[in-house]
Structures are given as structure tokens and as C-alpha cells.
Structure prediction request, 529 residues.
Amino acid sequence: MPQSDDTAPRAETEAAGAPAAAPEPAPAAGAHDGDGPLIRFERVVKRFGDNVVLRELDFNVEAGERVTLIGPSGSGKTTILRLLMTLETVNGGVIWVNGDPLSHMRKGERLVPANERHQRQVRRKIGMVFQQFNLFPNMSVRRNITEAPVHSLGVSREEADQRAEELLEMVGLGDKIDEHPTRLSGGQQQRVAIARALAMRPEILLLDEVTSALDPELVAGVLDVLREIARTTDITMLAVTHEMGFARDVSHRVLMFDEGQIVEEGPPEQIFGEPREERTRSFLHAVLESG
Amino acid sequence: MNFFVDALPLYLNGARYTLLITVGGCALAFAIAMAVGILGSTRSAALRALASVYVEVFRGVAALVLMFWLFYAMPLLTGYRLEPVFAAILALGLNIGAYGAENVRGAIKAVPRSQYEATVALNLSWTQRMRLVVLPQAWAQMLPTFGNLVIELMKGSAVVSLIAVSDITFVAQQLRTFTGETVLAFAAALVTYFVIAQVFVALMRLAERSANRRLGRIPARPRRRAKPAGAAAKGGAA
Prediction:
């Protein structure tokens, strides 16, 4: 597993002109059909009451791409992930996943708001890790990881068990499989939550400020696991994070948000190295100062 | 002292009916509470309305009058006479079930929204969500109130003495009539009810403790889980 201090050398090689980054991201294995982007936001509007969180937002994410969303709180980053996970519904525009409308379904030529069944179909490909872990306290670690594959994907118990063991091994918690989640530290709970999300074999993994609720000394362990996933898989990742070192390491592209719109986007070395927009500069300055 | 020695078998016999009605009534009330409570927590306005009509009707009806109606009035309308014990079970179960339904609905609503969101992220269906996550967590929340309702129902079972079922209260009245020992007859009944209640209380305590242990709350009283705001998230126990 890579150490958390591998930040510097890696950033250097990228800056030195080995653009493993955005232009040609690793294509996802098989499943992605068609030429279009894996995720497409088309003039997406989201309001909470009078508060417009996203205003006609357009952006694409290619299969296999790892995108980090940064920006001040309240700028709509988390809302984007929650819309993708169908935890919120759009007020305008359409979200496409793999060419299928997520927020809507086709009815003849028209698009109508999606029903529960359609959403279950489309969101099968999407997994999410939450800021507060959200493990199920009524289940052991093992069942937290295996219940959804067994019941939702129809995987056999034995297969789900075996996969849970592998995943826990990967996140460094092989010995905790029969523990109760409430007996684990926050960092351990979050790593279980990552294993739980991966057990569903998602094509898209959404990471919603996954280290924000952790004590500082527990952050590195969780980020190491995510770096490892980025290194060894081609899962498409969308991450909202305040960990700029992590964003720099793993992402192909960084999107800077403010007031529900993209202020600036580009490869991490550009955004962090030579941000063009004043708002990006002041945001990064504030974040790095406080960090 | 002789009174108690002589009367003990009679009270024990009465307790059999009291227990029978309590257990039967609780089973019915529990089934109703779960079904109506779950309906009341769905997103469908029609189902919720159905649940709330049930709750309002049967919470507002006196169990005693309902039992009289089932026992005396229904045979006139349908020609079918219920066993008195069964009429009591039905009346108490329908009545207490309405209270229980509100308890179930409240407990389901108290499961944190973040748990619901995790089930969405894992693509569980509504049924799977309820069965695997929501109800097991709500269960610990339901139990204390269910415990109270069990005791309510047990004490309420005394109404059967009015339709000549020889439960504890009926036995006490008979003894009073035949021996004239009013004070002793009812004192013995009070003690018998109290002892039975203590047994139920102890059983419910055990159930509560095991439910909390399954949610990882080791000490008897739960500490509430971290608030989603992020302030309270200090990693949990190591």
C-alpha cells in the first residue's frame, strides 16, 4: 500500500510531462457502451426552497476518470454527488449515466421524471461513501458488506463472504470481519464503508468528504486505501474533498465550484500550481492556510 | 391466613385466563401495530390515511364497550356468537394495537435518515430496506413502549370478568360474595396482578437489553449516534 508521503515524487513526475491525466483516461473495463461520457450533467438545476444550489450546470465525466470537486462549502459539490446517488431529485435539466437518463426515463420521445424502479436500474452502477460512514449498527462488519450484494445483486452467500474477506484484507481490516461496527474507530468504520461500497462492484464511486469526520491521525489510513483503489482499479471516481494532497495525487481533473457553477477546471497540477481564477486562488489560499 | 391458603388455587386458575387473554391480545395487538405502523410510515398518502383512520377509530373506542359489542351485539347482527375469551382478545388487541401502531410509526421515523440514504446507495428495495435495516434498528426504540402496552393490556383484561370469564377479577368477586372477605379478596387480586406484571416487566427488560446489545449499545442506556452535522463525530470507541 502506498505511503501517504508519496505525494511529492508523484506530483513531480506528472508535472515533468507524463500526463497520465485527463485527456486520455483509462477506459473502463467493458461495461461502458457508446462513445459518450459516462456521466453527463445537462443544464442541471437544483434548488432548496429559494436557495439555488446548482444553476444550469453542465459537465461530463469520462469512464475511468477520477474527478475531484473543490470549492467553498455551500457551493453545490455535495449536492452533485447526492443527485447522482438519487438522494435528491433535480429541479431542471437531465443527468445522464452511461447514456441513460438517471433523473428521468424515456417515454416514447419524451423524458419524464424517473420512478423508483428505473432509478434502481440505473443506480446499480453507482456506489457512495458518506462523510459519517453510515454503517448499519444492527449488523456485524461482515453483514454490512455482504447483505446488499446478496439481496440486491443476487450473489451467493459464499461468494459475498469471500469477497468481503478480500475487500477487508485490502482495506487492512481482515481481522475485524466479525466485529460490531460501533466497536471500530472512525477511520476503521470508514474503511469498512469503502469495502461495503466496493462489494457492489460499482462503476462509479462517489466520495463525499470521506475524511471530514475523522480525527486527524486517522485520515491518512483512509486516504491510503483510496489511493490504492485509484491505482489498482479503473473505477470512475467523483470525490468531494478538502484534502488537497489527495486531490492532487489521484485525480485526473479538478473542478473548482462556487455558487453552483464551475469556476475553473483543469488537471490538478494546473489548478493547484497556477490557478487562473482569482476565486480559485483565494479558496486554495484559505484551505492551505488552515490545513 | 387460611383465606389465602384456601383461595390460592382459585386465583391461580383465574390467572390462567388472565394470561391467556394477555398473550392472545398481545399477539393480535403486535401484528396490528406492525402492519398499521408500517403503513403509516410509507410515502403513499392513501396508505398513510388508511393507517391513521384505523388508529383514530380504535384508539377512541373503549375496550370494554367494544368487547360488549362483539359479545352481545354482533350475535344479533350476524347470528354468530364469539367465545367470551375470544371477544376479549379481539377487543383488547384491536384497541391496544392502535396505540402500538403509533409507537411503531414513531420508531421507524426515528431511524436516522443517514441509514436510509445508505440503503439507497446500496440499491436495496423498500422491502429489503425495512427488513434488513429499518425495523431491526427501530425495534430497540419500540420495546419500552411495547412493555407499557403489555402491562396495560394485562390489566385491561379484567373486563372479561363482566362477561363471566373466571379470570382473577371474577374469582375475587366470587370469593367476596361467598365469604364476605371483601378486603382480602380484592387485596389478593391486586397482588396477583402485580406479580404477573413483574414477570412481564422482567421479560421486556431482557428483550430491551438484547436489542440494545445487537445495536452495539453495550451499557443499558444508549448514547445517541453521531449527528449528521459533523460536530459529534469523534471516531467512536476504539
Confidence is low (pLDDT under 50) at residues 226-238 of chain B.
